[in-house]
Specification:
single chain, 309 residues, mainly alpha, Tetracycline Repressor, domain 2, 15 helices, 73% helix
Length: 309
């Protein structure tokens, strides 16, 4: 029974379902490279995905350790905010998250070096991996603590938008692509909105520990305006990229209506001040995450079916 309990606690602490926000953009980068005729071995795909997961786990674990005081104070959290609650509720001792964070850091460095040496993927491999580790480790860790300085949202948009897409493409092609940049715009903006709206339930706890993210710095009212403006940009750039980067059949255009409807629904909820009600705010957090995931999957599907140039 104890083993089952600890495994369940590890699963919650590791936030496994949320790994999708980093793995799916990486796959999009792979698919874009495939469309241009570049391929790699199965081992390269597997190790790259494992490295991205290790970097995300490092970020999650270090965040749990560094934000523990705020998570203990926070009483307004929901399924998408406030951390995993594993440390805050005492299911695991805090040192476990710290140990796992450093273990994942070491693992990511090792696998990144192995990819570079074994598959001769080019000098930018180390720089791309280094940027991911640097951004993730110092997202909540001193001395930089991006999430505490109003920079965390920007780093999230970059690290879960352009960075994994460009990395997936570069490791196969050995170069960068302007198409990867264009694809990353709606993906990056949508994950920016995810982290932004997830800060709403945590405002009290974040303010208490001096975590001056955008919501704490500027208040919920102003940040709802930012959320709405970003949502409109997400919809416009998503449509633009769909029409610009490939032939989009009618059935795919129909599926593309899913994130657009979710965007419209979220805009309506914000206009109706859903952020003031806990249950509706949780639904808004869920919709915002689904917007990001559905946009990434639809763009990946489009690049898969679009014939090579």
């Amino acid at each position: 029974m104890k083993l089952k309990f600890y495994l369940a606690a590890w699963w919650k602490l590791s936030r496994v379902p949320f790994l999708s926000v980093g793995v799916l953009p990486l796959i999009l980068g792979f698919v874009l490279a495939w469309r241009w005729g570049y391929q790699g071995s199965f081992g390269l795909y597997l190790l790259t995905t494992a490295t991205v997961i290790l970097i995300m786990w490092m970020t999650y674990y270090m965040g749990e350790w560094n934000d523990l005081e705020g998570d203990r104070i926070n009483r307004d959290f929901n399924l998408f905010s406030g951390g995993s609650r594993v440390l805050a509720e005492g299911d695991l001792p805090p040192w476990v998250a710290l140990l796992l964070g450093y273990a994942c850091l070491a693992g990511a460095v090792f696998t990144g070096l192995y990819i570079y040496l074994q598959y001769q993927t080019g000098p930018m491999t180390l720089l791309l991996g280094g940027i991911g580790i640097f951004a993730g480790f110092f997202y909540s860790s001193k001395p930089f603590q991006w999430a505490y300085r109003g920079l965390g949202e920007i780093f999230v948009g970059f690290s879960y938008g352009w960075l994994p897409i460009a990395t997936g493409f570069y490791l196969l092609a050995g170069s960068f692509s302007h198409q990867a940049f264009l694809l990353s715009i709606p993906v990056g903006l949508s994950i920016f909105n995810v982290i932004l709206i997830n800060e709403f339930p945590d405002e009290e706890g974040d303010r208490a520990i001096g975590k001056r993210n955008l919501v704490v710095r500027f208040g919920k009212e102003r940040m709802t305006d930012l959320y709405m403006g970003s949502s409109i940009l997400i919809g416009l750039t998503f449509i633009k990229v769909l029409l610009l980067l490939g032939q989009t059949p009618l059935w795919l255009l129909t599926i593309s209506g899913i994130p657009l409807l979710l965007i419209l629904s979220s805009l309506l909820m914000v206009w109706q001040e859903a952020h003031r009600e806990a249950k509706r705010l949780e639904l808004l957090c869920r919709n915002t995450l689904l917007i990001n995931l559905s946009i990434t999957m639809i763009l990946t599907l489009q690049q898969t079916i679009f014939p090579s140039p």
